[in-house]
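Before the break, one more example. Copy the sequence into your notebook; we will annotate it together after we see the structure.
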Amino acid sequence: MSKQVTLLKIYAGKDALWKGKHLYQALLFLLKDAGLAGVTVSRGIEGFGQRKAVHAARLLDLSADLPMVIECVDFSDNIEAVLPEIQVMVPKGLILTTDVLVHNEQLLSVGLGDTMEEECHVAEL
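Here is what the structure looks like once it is written out:
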């Protein structure tokens, strides 16, 4: 059994800020406070953007502004409700949504958000 949901992906620089916080952390807590099912933040190891400048994680260059990817899967209505605020927070990043299928029957039987932990864990890398 499968269920169609929406995948939200946001790409922003590691050093991007929002009101004095790292943008990726501000987005994580925005999505958590909005009650979305779950959020994963990943750091890219190498990539380039619109300006075609390659950013890479190298042992001698740990300060590179690498891409951060914030991913969230939830029902379309829940994602659409927070998109206007995300668009204000991420004027230069890339915001994507796409319809995807969830194939995990356990998540579908209780609802996406019901199996997620109550507490938000943030680890500084």
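Residues 106 and 115 are 9 Å apart (CA to CA). Residues 115-120 have pLDDT under 50 and may be disordered. Try to locate both features in your own notes.
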